[in-house]
Amino acid sequence: MVRLSSRDASLLMDVLEQQELPPEERRKLLDKADPVVRQIGEALIDPSQTSNDPDVQEAVAQIRQWAEETQKIEEKQRLYA
Amino acid sequence: MEDNPISYSPITIGEYLKLLLPRLGTTKGRHVPYWPADVFAVAMFLIQKSGIYTLILNEWPPTVESEESSEKWAGKMARLGERWRELAGRDEPRPPTYVSNHWRLLMEAYSSTFGRLREDRSLAHALFELAAMADEASAGVGLPRSPSGASKYGKFYRRARTQLLPTETGSTLCMEVDRTRLRVLPKMHAPSKGLTIRSLSHHLALCSGDEICPFWEISVGYSPTREFMNLLIVPWPETIKPVQFKRVQRRHSGMRNMLNDFGFFQYSPEPEKNDAEEVAPEKFVKHVEGLYHEASSMMGRIDGIVFPELALVPEEFEALREAEFTQKIFLVSGIAKAPEEDNSFSANELYCDIPNRERMVQSKHHRWKLDKSQIIQYALGSLLSPERSWWEHINVDSRKLNFVSLLPWLVMSVVICEDLARPDPVGDLLRAVGPNLVLALLMDGPQIKERWSARYATTLAEDPGCSVLSLTSAGMSKLSRPASGVNRSKVIGLWKDAHSSTPVEIELPDGCEGVVLSMSVRWMDEWTADGREDRGATGYPLLSGIHGVKKSSNSPGKA
Predict the structure, then answer these.
(1) What is the residue range of A22's domain?
(2) Alpha-carbon gap: B170 to the closest alpha carbon of chain A (Å)
(3) What is the domain count for chain B?
(4) With contacts defined as CB-CB under 8 Å, which chain A residues touch B165?
């Protein structure tokens, strides 16, 4: 299992959120990141950039699923409001 | 002899302002902070110190403009808050002009005595509005946001997230007000009862400095079920023997000032060991795996497993985390650590482990003091004399509290035993932030409604509105003997939320070794005392099912 620090997790959220930026600029956000975090971030930017590390693959899959689930909750919250 | 009367010097508004934000001590440094949490810290500190929040009941809406309906006023605060959110996320951030004008009013009162806050209504109202606008601007800070949801005001939320990242001394949302002076944290509940400073905000909590360090962690990549959650509760260990409570010598370097009437004890867990006397957790992991599979097949999905106080040793927790079946669920457990050398403290900690995140570790804040009645209750009299009081021999010099932001509606905190009962320092912080779910890991007798845990859970459920689960081990519950009446040792947990009229006892059914608790969310409107609603943003986890878990004959670990 990958172990992300608070800072790593925040960085990956930055990468996920800034979809309006061109991929190369989003990649720049990962310049100073730990190699594992960079691999996760690159796979989030470009799904074809898959890592050979099963832990990284698992983390990417879970982050993608998390993004979808979180979006569904936000939609539900908006409906209620 | 000449009279030399004492000269009293009342504190001024400026002295308080300078205390929070030293730059305000110079005339050049009196510009308004652009970041809402800093303005909130200043305004709320003055409102709290002066007690002027009680004015809100008489002079509401608290506006400097007269003849404004409360609804219209609340709408204005929301709009200005939204505008501030947009401006504070810019490359050259600034607050709205309306905020700057109110701030100017405050700076003009810099040299006035503090009592002016009560006399000058326009100044008091300006403070209320500064706090209200900062609160509205900060809606949703500290919570997970989906990439698409974050696109609006994205820069503001990214700034807030970066600001909140824990350092060695914990978290705060403030950029300018130093954490040693005051902290501001995200907030999940505005209390619906009483009138305190906490009644004035939905999204931001004012917290005092460093007595206890709050750590705010935002989950990414862990997805519990959307609107409900299934927790597998394992009241481990199943048996505790009195000899596991050992009398110890006080630490050489400390506590020399304590009377001899006090003794010290430590609890020693008895994990399974191999021939070389090393912890061999395989059997334990298989036991939990059996329960997990049974619970999963019954409920479809399990989101987390929770163990009580001092349930596991680190090696057992580690082995459980490594097991394949726990890779997508969170684990919370009380951890017992033996002293590293003679006369040193043992440790009573909790581990909170969310998939893909670094483990969160938190120590117990208060030592358990075993008195005569408890020694008799747990039948420990032959080991610890009932004629003395016995302190738990642990170190309490590292006080922190983790807030785990799991979902857009769910922030969870975990406390250990005594920490639920003591009103400070952790109680103040819990009430200020109001996490939606509080797990209390106990080493206690049966969790019946009449016990202390029910009282304190009820207090937190009423104000600020937390849902509270307390959990003890089957072993400790069995060791407890009631002074009178029926032994109810099967009651290993207790649930209380803001909408349950009485606490709910959680009983381990015959033959079962675990319990699944189902929680579902109810979205509710909350109101601040100044008449602002949160438009249904508050999620209340409510208990929606209790199921006993019995391992089937083909489960792993079933003998």
Answers:
(1) 6-80
(2) 12
(3) 2
(4) 6-7, 10
CA-based nearest residue in chain B for residue A8: B357
Q: How far is B135 from chain A (nearest CA, A)?
A: 18
Do B392 and B334 share a structural domain?
A: yes
- Residues B246 and B289 grouped into a single domain: yes
Interface contact B356, partner A, CB < 8 A = yes
C-alpha distance from B167 to closest chain A C-alpha (Å): 10
Chain B within 8 Å of A50 (Cβ-Cβ)? no
Name, in order, each residue with C-beta under 8 angstroms of B81's C-beta and a sequence gap of 6 or more: B36, B132, B133, B134, B135, B136, B137, B138, B139
Residue-number span of the structural domain to which B385 is assigned: 228-549
**Pick from A1, A14, A77: which is nearest to B356 by CB?**
A1
Please list every residue in chain A whose beta carbon sits closer than 8 Å to the beta carbon of residue B161.
10, 13
> Looking at the complex, does the CB of residue A81 fall below 8 Å from at least one CB of chain B?
yes
Tell me the pLDDT tens digit for each residue of B33-85: 999 999 999 999 999 999 999 998 887 776 655 677 888 999 999 999 999 99
Same domain flag for B198 and B235: no
DSSP states of B206-273 as a string? EEESSSSEEEEEE--S----SSEEEEEE----S---GGGEEEEPPPTTS-TTS-TTEEEEEE-----B
A52 in a structural domain: yes
Q: Name residue B415's amino acid.
A: V
Q: Are residues B205 and B265 in the same domain?
A: no
Query: Does B272 reside within a domain?
Result: yes
**Contact (CB, 8 A) for A70 and B145:** yes
Interchain CB distance below 8 Å, B146 and A18: no
Question: For chain A, what is the domain count?
Answer: 1
Q: Is B523 on the interface with A (CB under 8 A)?
A: yes
Q: What is the pLDDT of residues B178-211, one digit of tens each?
A: 999 999 999 999 998 889 999 999 999 999 867 8
Using an 8 Å Cβ cutoff, are B163 and B175 in contact?
yes
